Amino acid sequence: MCTKTFFWNIRGFNDPDKHRHFASWLLLNQPIVGVILESHIKEQNLSPIMQRVCQGWSYFSNHDTDEDGRIILMWKFPASVNILHQSKQSITCSVSVPGTVDFYFTAVYALNLREERITLWEDLKEVQTTLFLETKNWIVGGDLNQIIHFSEHPSPTVDHLTSDMLELKDTLMEIGIMDLRYQGCSHTWTNKSLAAPITKKLYKVLVNEAWSDSFPDITATFLPFEFSDHTPCLINLSTPLPTTGTKPFKFLNFLTTLPQFLDAIGEAWILCGNRALDLHVLAYKLKQIKRAIKTLNRERLSDIQKRMSITNDLLKVLQVQAMEDPTPENFEAEKIMHHKWTFLRGIEEAFFKQKSRINWLHLGDQNTLFFMKVATARFSYNSICSLLLPNGELITDPELMCRIAVEHFTNILAPSILPQLSSPFSWFLQIQPYRCDPS
């Protein structure tokens, strides 16, 4: 089942013309949970509008804490929503959908003034603490009315971090939520001014660590703003990352620590001849070396975590034997096993360190759980879920994406018709004066 949620700032939702467009958008994208922000619908008008525009939907607004009801939470079957907290700038609820892990959703609409937004930041801290959301799947989405970095503003005069940005950044770090990876529009709001156009990234989709563990493949998509001045955000909870038939070869640095490494490389190189006189032969030799490296990794270090666990169990057995029967043979066996366990532990850490790309973390921390989380998050963040063609078509089929990517880079790196050189050959010779000996 396709499980989608959305949030969209539709200022002036009282306008009947926006009702028709919004109903068409819902029909096209088929979300089952969503939020309308900055609607400015009075409480007495809310029920007639929702019954006319969103038939079959249940809804809840924060009119009890804000007379303008700036946040309208809406859901439909089979989703089940339980309201847990509301304030002038947020609504927090739990969401249950059959076939999907339950999660907690906080919809946010921050007010314009800094003093008012500080109240929201404190409110988020309180919600996390009172509802124990640190260990639960928690997603925060909406209009923060504040950028977190000057790169989210196009003006060259905005070139440094302000106190407002730092306050928001500190709040997000304190409650442990971070940006969900996204695609589509990088900026989410426009003033629609022809004379002095401005765009900013005011929308955020933020998730905690527990969410990343439960939904590692999820991506937010910021779509065109259509009839609003804000882009809608659509989050599909049931979209897996594209997979390929084979994984690309990756050289693992810790293989160089194996005693058999140089012998395996040397043997593979010699079997293909001692010399490589052209690129074709060199490519063939490197391919044979790659096979030797894969074989070495598979035979010596495959399932490194399982190997380390087994070695650790054997080490504990030998340590007990050495304590019960303190003979030189038992202590020598314990010493050898301890050395093997230490070696495998270093290999495991080096593996996760390279996989997670944590360049600032020094070897020795042995924090493999942290490495696993970072490696998983990095894989999700770097995965390409879709391609947007120049004609505006969005491609999500993995095989078609593969063909388009190959065609794109083939046209760049190996075009069928080579372009004319704009510089004479003599100019290229002047760049590098080195010449090979003709003999």
UniProtKB/TrEMBL annotation:
TM annotation in the entry: none
Alphabetized SUPFAM superfamilies for the sequence: DNase I-like (SSF56219)
Alphabetical list of InterPro entries matching this protein: Endo/exonu/phosph_ase_sf, Endo/exonuclease/phosphatase
Protein name (Swiss-Prot/TrEMBL): Endonuclease/exonuclease/phosphatase domain-containing protein
Coiled-coil ranges (or none): none
Ranges for domain Endonuclease/exonuclease/phosphatase: 8-147
Domain of life: Eukaryota
Pfam families, sorted: Exo_endo_phos (PF03372)
